[in-house]
Amino acid sequence: MLLAGPEEASPRRLSASAWVDEVRAHPLNRWVWNDTRQWYPALLAAGVEARRCRDLRLAHEILRTSAHVTEPAHLRAAAQWRSADADALVPAVDAAMTLFDLDGGAPRGVPTDFDEVRAEFDRQRAAVATAIHADRLQLLLAAESAGALLAAELHAAGLPWSRAVHEGILDDRLGARSSTGRHPARVEALAAEVRAALDDPTASLDSQPKLLRALHRAGVLATSTSRWELARFDHPVIAPLLAYKKLMRLLSANGWAWLDEWAPDGRFRPVYVPSGVVTGRWASSGGGALQLPRDLRPAVRADPGWVLVVADVAQLEPRVLASMARDETLAAAARGTDLYSGIVAGGVVTTREEAKFAMLGAMYGATTGDSGRLVPALRRAYPRAMGLVDEAARVGDDGGVVTTWWGRSSPPPGPDWRGVQSAAGAPEASEADRTRARRSARDRGRFTRNFVVQGTAAEWAAAWLADLRTQLAAFPLVSDEAAAPASGPVFSRRAHLAFFLHDEIIVHAPREQAEQAAEAVRLAADRATALLFGTFPIDFPLDLRIADDAAKA
DNA sequence: AGTCCCCGCGCG
DNA sequence: AAAGCGCGCGGGGACT
């Protein structure tokens, strides 16, 4: 059951087939539905695109907790719309789903009943109407919903993936694949080297406790087996062991098994989870889409006659911070392409690396080490920007809630956190109680410090994506297959988004649309900046290239 | 056999 | 080299 139609008109009930016809006839309408994941994959498979929507499930989550919503009581009472309660019931995106299911499938997840869907839409409109910064919340809900559409489209499109290139990298790095169930040749050779250096022919290298004991027996008194700690030791076992660990990582995370499971047909199709992170960042599920190793990027390869437009934003988070805080000094340092060089040019620190670690330290809450040591210099140079994150940390430390530019609020502290704090305040509290409470308050302060920046950066990225997606939807189809019966996503015949990772996008484009797509990417970034920050003088420069593969320069 | 947690490492 | 934020995943091991 769907609630459909432009929001100005009165909602109507539609059968699935009537709805498909309706979407085709009125592509510019905004469709309101309970949960994009429940309907859109099947529609895409049927060759139907939705241009705009309101995803009530995602919007509910934002509005229920936003500090800018002054009257949340009705929304909060509608617990059936909470994702956390409903998610366990939502079928996997890839579940065999046909258009018949749209009418007859057993309803699961958030409510599908027409009247309940309409009631939730009304609750949300009322909540926004009385909210502070209602205009920003509207933008957030629109961007969030566009993200929901895009997530389904990205999955349907897939990231073009060359099995041959991937296999070539594996052969090159790991050596020949064993046919006898053993590790590949180079991995086996390194394992033998490690065991020889340990003088322990049966040492187990893949079990952390066993490896640590074997190292101790050989005189390497490490406390962990992490790469950073092992690298400090001067012992013949270290070099082959680190090499072994590196190769084993490639083998287990992105080896032949990964290739067979996640890119069997020349497309990598992760499940994207918009707002899967509390800050509003996307998460992903399956295949490790958010952790594709740099070394494997050459395997991302455009189809014949197509190219990739690969673009990322340079230093997105510090630029967002400067804009939120209206810090014109930091914004001036950010002018041009490299914010960190701008900080050095301002005489704040002496090297680009120092500028980078100081800025990361300021946004993450570093207190010790080189990073923590450099933060005070930044605080002196950019009091407005640093004041914003310091204040966010103070609020979190104090048990409060912080909110992004467009109105997404951090979760309030849970009962465990409050329990630790109140225990430390009791008369009989021990020093250990107070220490634990201070540490937990600081931990939360670092979280809220980062939340406002990471969350607003996610909003900038969402605005960028939504604008770009709309632009690309107007590109002409390039093949003459339009006359053929619809099958598969329509957008696979024109430039379309194929990947998104926090501050980076990949567009897969027919060669003749490449320049136009690249221009759309740039224009979308400029519009996103204006949409969030108006006329504040800040640059969000893109690193953009058009290439056959996505290898980093 | 299934479930949970830890460790380590990949990404932004 | 830097230890500060947010994730997902695979492997091992402890437990039921």
Key features of this structure:
DNA-binding, alpha+beta, 553 residues, 10 strands, globular
Task: Give the helix/strand layout.
Layout: H1 16-25, E1 30-33, H2 36-45, E2 52-55, H3 56-65, H4 73-77, H5 83-86, H6 99-104, H7 114-129, H8 134-157, E3 159-160, H9 163-174, H10 185-198, H11 208-217, H12 227-230, H13 238-254, H14 256-262, E4 267-268, E5 271-273, E6 283-285, E7 306-313, H15 316-324, H16 328-333, H17 339-345, H18 352-364, H19 369-381, H20 383-397, H21 415-425, H22 431-473, E8 496-500, E9 504-510, H23 514-533, E10 542-547
Parallel strand pairs: 1-2
Antiparallel strand pairs: 3-4, 5-6, 7-9, 7-10, 8-9
This protein binds a DNA duplex (12 and 16 nucleotides) through residues 206-210, 224-228, 231, 245-246, 248-249, 252-254, 276-279, 281, 283-294, 312, 316-317, 353, 357, 360-372, 375, 446-447, 449-451, 453-454, 457, 501-504.
Structure, described:
The protein has 553 residues and is α+β, with helices and mostly antiparallel strands. The chain has 23 helices and ten strands. It has helices at 16-25, 36-45, 56-65, 73-77, 83-86, 99-104, 114-129, 134-157, 163-174, 185-198, 208-217, 227-230, 238-254, 256-262, 316-324, 328-333, 339-345, 352-364, 369-381, 383-397, 415-425, 431-473, 514-533; strands at 30-33, 52-55, 159-160, 267-268, 271-273, 283-285, 306-313, 496-500, 504-510, 542-547. The strands form four sheets. The protein has a four-stranded antiparallel beta sheet. Strands 1-2 form a two-stranded parallel sheet. Helix 2 links the parallel strand 1 and strand 2 (52-55). Helix 13 packs parallel to helix 14 (256-262), helix 15 (316-324) crosses helix 20 and helix 18 crosses helix 19. The longest helix is centred in the last third of the chain and has 43 residues, at 431-473. The chain is globular. It starts with 15 loop residues before the first helix and ends in a 6-residue tail after the last strand. Residues 88-107 and 482-486 have low confidence and may be disordered. The chain binds a DNA duplex (12 and 16 nucleotides) through residues 206-210, 224-228, 231, 245-246, 248-249, 252-254, 276-279, 281, 283-294, 312, 316-317, 353, 357, 360-372, 375, 446-447, 449-451, 453-454, 457, 501-504.
